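The data layer described in this paper is built around a simple, fixed record for each protein. We quote a single record here, exactly as it is kept in our systems:
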Amino acid sequence: MTDPDPREDRRLDRRAFIRNATLFTATAAGLGAGLELLTRRPGADAQTLPEPVAQVRRPRPLGPYDTKEAVTPYRSVTTYNNFYEFGLDKGDPARNAGSLRTRPWTVTIDGEVKAPRTVDLDTLQSWFPLEDRVYRMRCVEGWSMVIPWMGFPLAALIRRADPTGAARYVKFTALHDPEQMPGQRRPVLDWPYVEGLRLDEALHPLAFMAVGIEGRVLPNQNGAPLRLVVPWKYGFKSIKSVVRITLTREMPRTTWALAAPSEYGFYANVNPQVPHPRWSQATERRIGEGGRRPTLLFNGYTQVADLYRGLDLRRNF
């Protein structure tokens, strides 16, 4: 693992925004953040992780949606995370997420669907054959990874729910339980965490519901037991620990767009030509590598470009 260069871009990170919000929750929900400083080895101060609880898949040939880039080491993927429900620092989720109980777990599918239901997660998983996807992940803070996920296409779940003609968006809601998620005891964000997609985005073959990483059960700190993965968008769109999926007529009000609407838009498509208000998005630091590499439009997933034909990506960031 290569240590990040401590001389890079010494700016405030999003944790500064969170800490300010804690002090000024009544008035400072829209205050700024900054570029994440990669000044220490990911997970260097994290506790040793237990062995994975189960092997759920075996290695297999690359599929049509996979990147051929080198996979980020499992330890880095599982010890360097943004998951504010368990703390603000990158190592906090690995240290603190053991309090999360992932069974029993139910998911409610409701709203503009003809077949609303609340279903046990194990039953839900049994509906779909599990697939492997090796995706790039680009954080809005300017760092990236390559992660081998295991799960099923989001489109399969939505089609099973049978959307009504009025459905236009999909709203995702994460677990809200401060007993299990100690970070939720502080009003640093408007809990529960909420994200959303347009329905056509959700139906795209790349949109994915993950239940594992690298052939292993999804670790708590990575969003167990069920999380969204939308690889052409910044990482905060890929909501973790999902308990509700609601199809709606109106665009959902999402957590980071509410917290800082001038900085974190609804679409959050990776775009090197659209900077964050306080830093460039033109390059990124791949965890485990030295230096920086150019950021790709849509994180390199150009097959989604038709979803945004005619849309001003600078205004609709």
Observations:
- Residues 1-12, 21-58 have pLDDT under 50 and may be disordered.
- Helices lie at 14-23, 74-79, 92-96, 121-126, 154-161, 199-202, 255-259.
- The first helix runs from residue 14 to 23.
